[in-house]
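Q: Predict the bound structure with heme C.
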Amino acid sequence: MSHWFYDFLAALGYSHPLHPVLVHVPAGMSIGALGFSILAALTKQAAFRATAYHVAVFALAFTLLAIPVGIFDWQRFYGGAWFFEIQIKAVLAALYLLLIASAAVIGRRCLESKALPVLYFASVVTVAGLGFFGGQLVYHGFTPEAPVQFKIGRQVFDSHCSGCHRRGENILEPNMPLRNAPQLHDFAEFLAFIRNPRMPDGSPGVMPQFGSDRISDLHARELFDYLNFAFVASNRPASAQ
Ligand code: HEC
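A: Predicted complex:
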């Protein structure tokens, strides 16, 4: 149903999901509502209470937009598959809508209601959960799971490499993926490469240098072992991937 709209945006050059762009508004506004209601309690100024309420109504308006767009994104980018993160997000989104809509209804009757700060607070907690599971959805899988002996190497990969080499790919130089890279055969060669990365012709590329102040030799070894496990097909039992 919504495909023509995404196709239209893609024709204009925008092919990303829309939900992450929109959700910043309810998330930020919920934090704002809580912030202003705390300010109202501290300063006893009624104007802050009114601001908190107006901000919450704004959050509600954008939630009514963000939820259907989230459903469209889910259909478009995940084929409507009903997996764990989506289930949690559906429950949290329903809860968030209930909380922020209740705040809008109660505040309309009485801005002094003691329920309002509680609802603002609960909406911030819920929105944090929604953000966390949204992040899981997008970034999980960038860093493949591995048995516990690769834990340190996996953490080093997650914090230093996975941004550019998600899932063993290379987002900047697609023809030079990490998966099955020649440097993964020999540790000395690998260490020399991350200390001073080069393009195949020997010229410096875009990959940053990782000196021993950022990744110690010891951690580089752990990283090397993890990369061999995660991204060198011949090192893994067929059942592990
Ligand atoms: C800013 C993006 C970026 C980050 C972060 C990054 N790389 Fe790279 N990587 C590249 C690019 C671009 C290349 C292509 C060569 C170059 O630019 O020097 C590359 C090439 C490589 C290659 C050679 C692949 C081949 O097929 O020859 C290896 C191995 C590698 N990176 C490992 C790592 C490791 C390990 C880390 C983390 C410690 C890391 N990279 C972090 C962008 C990055």
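A: The pocket of heme C is lined by residues 160-161, 163-165, 170, 172-173, 176-178, 181-183, 193-194, 197-199, 205-208, 210, 215, 223 (CB under 6 Å).
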